[in-house]
Backbone:
């Protein structure tokens, strides 16, 4: 079962303050910085025009310190708090690499690692900042892992995509979760995909649906929040709908996160990879999976790596 984030939203600037300042001094030109190896790609730059009420990003960045990452509204988390193993968030597991299985051949990779101790654990998260995402369609192409990339299997890892309020203490707290647990957790046996709509973080007030299925590989995850209900769909098929008080009540940021519920065994080091191909949002419209993919295909065909025309008010 899902748990509240219990995090501060002011936690990632330790990584990005200097690059963001450099970006400002350079008029946020989006000029690429030195890459992190042969996989480095030209950095994205802010797109001032395009379809109204649209946010799209396919994560063409050279690394966590690429100034364009901050300029385009993304943070790499390095601060404290939960969920999972508290105060183990690190930029070390965040990278942008070539991947022949991804559309356009580029991905955001979130790699979490542990040796079974708190000191030897690193969790990874990337979030948007200052976005104005409320009602409409949220979509992401995500690669889930059923097994560790290296090391012994069995960890209670959580691979997630979710819009969430900027503050857990907000009176209009809103959170819409996809959480994949390949090995289960919270007393449940995996594999399991949880879809959860939150009304309040503390005390927890939510509705959730567990889907017992194995999801190794690429999937299109969608949340449509329109007309007083929230619908979760996977690869175009509806999974769960919430309504009543379990709908967004305020604007949210987007998070991609890979973390551990607990540390069930030592057993040497192991790593878990989650990959993100692209993210798409359309304000105040219910968009089908086919039309989402059509729009994304159009951005790739035009060479558009990032666009944000969502009103900020």
Residues:
């Amino acid at each position: 079962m899902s748990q509240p984030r219990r995090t501060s939203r002011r936690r990632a600037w330790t990584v990005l303050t200097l690059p963001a300042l450099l970006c400002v001094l350079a008029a946020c030109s989006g000029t690429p910085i030195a890459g992190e190896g042969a996989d480095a790609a030209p950095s994205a730059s802010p797109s001032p025009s395009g379809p109204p009420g649209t946010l799209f990003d396919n994560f063409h960045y050279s690394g966590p310190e690429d100034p364009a990452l901050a300029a385009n509204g993304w943070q790499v988390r390095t601060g404290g708090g939960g969920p999972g193993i508290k105060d183990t968030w690190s930029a070390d597991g965040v990278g942008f690499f070539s991947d022949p299985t991804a559309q356009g051949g580029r991905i955001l990779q979130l790699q979490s690692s542990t040796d079974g101790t708190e000191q030897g654990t690193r969790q990874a998260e990337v979030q948007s900042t200052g976005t104005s995402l409320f009602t409409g369609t949220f979509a992401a192409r995500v690669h889930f892992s059923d097994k560790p990339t290296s090391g012994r299997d069995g960890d209670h890892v959580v691979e997630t995509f979710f819009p969430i309020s900027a503050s857990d203490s907000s009176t209009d707290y809103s959170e819409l979760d996809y959480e994949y647990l390949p090995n289960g957790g919270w007393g449940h046996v995996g594999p399991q995909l949880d879809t959860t709509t939150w009304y309040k973080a503390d005390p927890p007030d939510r509705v959730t649906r567990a889907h017992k299925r194995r999801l190794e590989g690429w999937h299109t995850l969608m949340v449509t929040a329109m007309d007083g209900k929230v619908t979760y769909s996977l690869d175009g098929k509806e999974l769960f709908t919430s309504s009543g008080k379990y709908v967004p009540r305020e604007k949210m940021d987007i998070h991609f996160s890979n973390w551990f519920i607990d540390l069930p065994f030592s057993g040497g080091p192991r790593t878990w990879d989650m990959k993100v191909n692209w993210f798409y949002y359309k304000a105040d419209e219910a968009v089908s999976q086919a039309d989402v993919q059509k729009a994304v295909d159009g951005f790739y065909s035009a060479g558009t790596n990032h666009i944000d025309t969502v009103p900020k008010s």
